[in-house]
Design goal:
The protein has a single domain (2-76, 85-222), classed as 3-Layer(aba) Sandwich (Collagenase (Catalytic Domain)), CATH 3.40.390.10. 44% of the residues lie in helices and 15% in strands. The protein contains eight helices and six strands. Helix 1 (7-23) crosses helix 2, helix 4 (121-131) crosses helix 6 (183-196) and helix 7 (198-204) crosses helix 8 (206-216). The chain is globular and about 45 Å long. The chain starts with 6 loop residues before the first helix and ends in a 19-residue tail after the last helix.
């Protein structure tokens, strides 16, 4: 994406990256040594979400943990009679409401090497961080009250329900069906596509694109053509 970003936005992005690197701790896990290049690549993608907005630099975030590859995260399942079952889920990224983003480096690299596929684990997990800045991770990221919030609710709920219906039927979906889990995941998945394949998103889901453009105060579909692709995102 970087070659297509306007020059003024590049300068703003570079400033945000310096602040984020100074304020947040980056740690390697499972024997991974985190290099300066890795820190910059993660921070630069995360800071795309801050352009043109009042940058709070992910105020709940303290540390970014990076594993070499997919990692196991503990989970609990509560059934209808109250029985709790514990298990582990294999993940490529995770965002905690308080303090931590966890990333698999091989998936970060996949996001960097791809283009136009709607997949970027860094954008996804840091979108969750933005979502939870002023409340729960629920797909309503600090929106003002009034008409703008009502319009956001209408468009996002409409597109979320559409994705859920199509996913349940086993149909191909433009957005990653992972976003059908809940509104918070929908916002994160939509953010990935907004930056990764903006022209496709604008064409296929113009109202959703418009809401994200107003929220992020950016129009990535209008960025320069150098390095741009028009591939469809993953099903």
């Amino acid at each position: 994406m970087y070659p297509r970003i306007p020059d003024a936005d590049r300068r703003e992005l570079q400033g945000h990256v310096q602040v984020l690197l100074a304020e947040k701790r980056f740690e390697g896990c499972a024997g991974l040594e985190v290099t300066e290049e890795m820190r910059v690549l993660v921070a630069a993608q995360a800071c795309l979400l801050l352009l043109h907005r009042e940058a709070e630099y992910f105020p709940r975030l303290v540390a970014v943990l990076i594993y070499p590859g997919s990692f196991r995260s503990p989970r609990q399942h509560h059934d209808e009679v109250g029985v709790v079952t514990e298990h582990h889920e294999v993940l490529s990224g995770e965002s905690w409401d308080r303090g931590t983003v966890v990333l698999a480096w091989d998936e970060v690299r996949r996001g960097l090497q791809g283009g136009g596929d709607g997949y970027n684990v860094v954008l996804h997990e840091f979108a969750h961080q933005i979502d939870c800045e002023h409340g729960p991770t629920d797909g309503y990221p600090g929106l003002p009250r009034g008409k703008a919030r009502a319009e956001w609710a209408r468009v996002m709920s409409q597109e979320f329900e559409s994705l859920r219906r199509e996913s349940d039927r086993g149909q191909w979906t433009f957005l990653d069906p992972y976003g059908a889990q809940d509104p918070g995941e929908f916002f994160a998945v939509a953010t990935e596509s907004f930056f990764e394949c903006p022209r496709d998103l604008r064409r296929e889901m113009p109202e959703l694109y418009g809401q994200l453009a107003r929220f992020y105060r950016q129009d990535p579909a209008g960025w320069g053509d150098r390095g741009a692709t028009e591939e469809s995102p993953r099903a």
